Amino acid sequence: MNDSTVVLPWLVIRQDDNGSRYRVGRYATRAEAERIADSLDTRGHKQLYFVERIDGPDDDGGRTPLP
Fold first, then answer.
1. 24-45 burial, b for 16+ CB within 10 Å, e for fewer?
2. Which of 2, 41, 52, 62 is the most exposed place for a label (fewest CB within 10 A)?
3. Distance between CA atoms of 4 and 10, rounded to whole angstroms?
4. Which phi and psi (to 5°) does residue 11 adopt?
5. Along the 67 residues of the chain, how does pLDDT read in single tens digits?
6. What pLDDT score was predicted for residue 41?
7. Residue 47: its pLDDT value, please?
8. Whole-angstrom distance between the N-terminal and C-terminal Cα of the chain?
């Protein structure tokens, strides 16, 4: 498998106190994404971390805020 065929449909999202959402990372499996979200969540910050599945390719590499 080359890099152009790697599928990373699971996102870890951070939501701050103002409701702004940002992509933290993309992962191949839900379990992997949930592990990352759980580890970030246990750090005691006020941000909320959660997992979402996407259906299509990500054009910007997750660098822009979500709506």
1. bbbbeeeebbbebbeebeeeee
2. 2
3. 17
4. -105, 145
5. 555 677 899 999 999 888 999 999 999 999 999 999 999 988 876 789 999 999 754 444 444 445 4
6. 85
7. 85
8. 33
Q: What is the DSSP string of 7-37?
A: ---EEEEEE-TTS-EEEEEEESSHHHHHHHH
Contact yes or no for 13/5 (Cβ under 8 A): no
Structure tokens given for 60: 């910007």
Q: Is 67 helix (H, G, I), strand (E, B) or coil?
A: coil
With CA atoms as reference, report the closest residue to 28 among 2, 49, 53: 53
